[in-house]
Amino acid sequence: MTKINFKRDGLTLVGQVERPFAEKYDLAILLHGLGDNQDTSLMRKLSSSLRNAGIANIRFDFSGQGGSSGKLEEMTIFSELADASTVLEEVRSNPHVNNIYLIGHSMGGVVATLLADLYPDLLPKLVLLAPAASLKDYINNGELMGTSFDPNNIPNKVRAGKLTLGSLFFRSFKNLSIYGSAGRYKGEVNIIQGTNDEAVAVSYAQKFDHVFPNSQLNLIENADHSFTESFEDKAVDQVIKFLK
Question: Is-above-0.85 flag for pTM?
Answer without folding.
Answer: yes
